[in-house]
Amino acid sequence: MKLNHFTDYSLRVLIYLNKKDKAQSCSLDELSEKLNILRNHLIKVVQFLSQKGFVNTKRGKNGGIIISDKARTTGLGDLIHLLEQDDSPIINCQSKSCIFISYNCQLKSFLDIAYQAFIDSMNKHYLSDLVFNNWDIIFASQHTSN
After folding, report:
1. Are 27 and 65 within 8 A, CB to CB?
2. Alpha carbons 75 and 135: distance in angstroms, whole number
3. How many CB atoms lie within 10 A of CB 30?
4. DSSP code for 26
5. How many CA atoms lie within 13 A of 104 on its CB side?
6. Residues in CB range of 8: below 8 A, 6 or more apart
7. Where are the domains of the chain?
8. DSSP secondary structure letter of residue 58
9. In terms of Cα–Cα distance, which of 85, 82, 68, 86 is closest to 127?
């Protein structure tokens, strides 16, 4: 299974925001610089996360982006499933006509069971489990490579 870029970027944003103090906001420009992701991609990510209640956004001089309690208490599996935005993320027998569909093919069923096991396994973990002992070093080394 391969996660899409949207899911990858969203998880990076949530990991970064989770490390910040609960009251400390972050700008799109800061996210773009720190995570090395184009601002235009982040706009879509932050809008989606805001619509789903995982971040709170505020415009203006004292505005910014803050992670919500919902994001902190949602299992990583549920986050990933929501971010993938697809109820059948591995295989869709209907999208391109499959000659095996009328012959009781079990592949989709097997893959769906495996996907659910992945989600269940990931739900044992939360953003708080993603701990970096060298948080400052991660971003210090990033500045020297630019």
Report:
1. yes
2. 22
3. 15
4. B
5. 0
6. none
7. 5-145
8. E
9. 68
Q: How far apart are CA 40 and CA 55, in angstroms?
A: 17
CATH 1.10.10.10 fits 5-145, yes or no: yes
- Cα separation of 58 and 61, whole Å? 9
Query: Over the stretch 83-110, which tens digit does the pLDDT of each residue have?
Result: 998 776 677 777 777 778 767 788 888 9
Give 22-78 pLDDT, tens digit per residue. 778 999 999 999 999 999 999 999 999 999 999 999 988 878 999 999 999 999 999
* pTM to 2 decimal places: 0.85
In single-letter form, the type of residue at position 71 comes to A
The DSSP string of 62-129 is T-EEEE-HHHHHS-HHHHHHHHHT-SS-S--TTTTT-TTGGGT--HHHHHHHHHHHHHHHHTT--GGG
85: left (phi over 0), alpha (psi -120 to 50) or beta: left
